[in-house]
């Protein structure tokens, strides 16, 4: 998961709400609250995760929906009156904890063939931006899964093209660790600590 205070806290200065697809254990919700968002909306297709999160955050400004991300977003987007952050993290998962090594070499041989479980990212972006530019920011988690079976071989370029076709000239693209950050022009994107960025560059040059 790419959610962290370093990612969320700077954005909480511009946005009051964070809307998340893929509740999982609720850690992203917790980080969003600690980062200063006044409202958090999450959804998951797994009822067990939803019930756990509802119990965990019953005293917080959190709403957790049960259902597919596309279904929930269609409803939520109509109710959002101000620009919000959409953290997209609903996609296929490896079949076992041992498979949580994300790389093209380990994921190119996919296992998920069910069309009903196709990666929803493009459909989610269609819903978020389909009504025109509203100032929303979109964060796509696990960008290392692009071009693998976890994203059903969706490419990052396809996401960029989708955003640009729906709202031409309105968005810029950047990265924070494993998150693709799609933000309106003029909204400052979160930046990683210098030592993290430099360390990654050194490791890349060393071939590690």
How would you explain this protein's 3D organization?
The chain has one domain: 3-Layer(aba) Sandwich (Rossmann fold), CATH 3.40.50.150. Helix content is 36%, strand content 17%. The radius of gyration is 17 Å and the shape is globular. Mean pLDDT is 83; it is low at 96-113 and 195-199. It has 208 residues and is an alpha/beta fold. It has helices spanning 5-12, 27-34, 47-56, 69-79, 104-107, 121-129, 156-166, 194-206; strands at residues 17-21, 39-44, 62-66, 85-88, 137-140, 171-176, 179-184. It starts with a helix and ends with a helix. The protein contains 8 helices and 7 strands, in the order αβαβαβαβααβαββα. A 7-stranded mixed β-sheet has the order 3-2-1-4-5-7-6, sandwiched between helices.
